[in-house]
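Treating backbone geometry as a discrete language has practical consequences that deserve illustration. The amino acid sequence and the backbone structure tokens for this protein are reproduced below.
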Amino acid sequence: MAVSPPQSISARLKGLTRLTGGQQVGLMLMLATVIALVSGAWMWSQTPDYRVLYSNLSDRDGGAIINSLQQMNVPYKMAEGGGAILVSSTQVYDVRLRLASQGLPKGSVVGFELMENQKLGTSQFLEQVNYQRALEGELTRSIQSISAVQGARVHLAIPRPSVFTREQQKPSASVLVSLHPGRLLDRAQVSGIVHLVSSSVPDLPVKNITVLDQNGNLLSAADDGKANAGLDPSQLEYLRQVEQSFIKRIENILSPITGGENVRAQVAAELDFSQTEQTAETFRPNTPTEASIRSQQSNETSGGAGLAASGVPGALSNQPPGAASAPVTAPAATAAGAAPAQSGSAGGGHKESTVNYELDKTIKHVKLPVGGIKRLSVAVVVNYKKVVGKDGKVSAKPMTAAEMAQISNLVKESMGYRQDRGDTLNVVNASFSVTTEEIQAIPIWKDPATISLAKEIARNLFIAGVLFFLVFKVLRPLFKELSTPPPPPPEPVHTEHLGIPVGAMKSDYEDGLKVAKVMAKEEPKVVASVVKDWIGSNE
């Protein structure tokens, strides 16, 4: 039996004409449903992922940006509440650059661009006001560039110049900063803002600048001595570095013995940040063996005529001297630090000697370093040591006294323990009940990038599955059934030549079975043709 050629389009259309009116309407509805599903799946796959272009915009900037987006034919939508403008994630940075070239968003702060639109005939007062507004805007932009500052406002009070020196006033300024949630400005940053404003306005002293935060807290405290009573940030940072340095040294020396996770140390340091200078002048008494002569003077006179007249003029003074006699005690020294005078009795001679010695004086000028360590307090906790038993189980046991003494000595050496300084050390051996959990990486199934990729893949797979089901399970069987021609009518079987009457074939089941067997033996081709017709007609 020859194979029939493939059915043409005309044959398929003829198959459609054989359908009833209800079947044709159902087929059309099914085709329309398939087309709608395919179109919806395609539009869903082409829907862009919207992201924030700008947020917290003023009404003026928002309207200008939307107008520019419409002119550039960029699709956009507003977030719920109108707090942000959203565009496609693939166009965020491109649109931002194109809007920036147009000067958008301008923001509510205006700077020196205000001076570009000066009108002819503007008064001097208006020019001064515009200049002050422009200067305030530029200062606001500069302060907002600080990472911790979310927004800022600057108010300048610039007095009018006067020709009288006594009536001249200094300008003043007030700055209000709005900080990001969880951010703070330290004293150095506040001082930087104050000096920034002071350097931008002529003749503006630092003391005339006030800085407030959004909660009304005064950040620029007056320098009256009380503000500097505490430590500045640099000193606090140095104190923290000193403590962390000692902690690291202690843990590094004990980690090879106990393990990195089995030791914890804390250090409290007291530092001296006072600036001290000492000048001392000391005198030490001279010893006879170490004395050094500074100056020496001797005076000697001879007796008799060489002696000068002395005494009260009169009869008593003109009498001759009496007999010489030796003195009972030696005369005292004539001056401090001088040797006793010597006089000769024979002939009335006189000898005197004066000796001055050097004074032993020491002058010392000492400038003590800033940030010296006054006292250290160290606490160390060591975990129980792990012991593996004969059965392979791990158990924790406390350390012996010798091991604890060895650890204490190591800690003392690493921290530079000094008892005269008042240092304290406490080493405790205890079991750690809570282990430190290390920060683990985000699992791959919780990674936002992985989740986004999985959603994209799942969406594409769903679309592909729907298309596969519609094409291979709905459309293909339907068109195959329509394109299949109707089976030809079965050819009549003539059995008169076999000698079997036709009525005998209808007598009963057994007779019919015998006839079929005889026909299969005698005419196998005819039987095969009949079976093929039955199979083709699905009967």
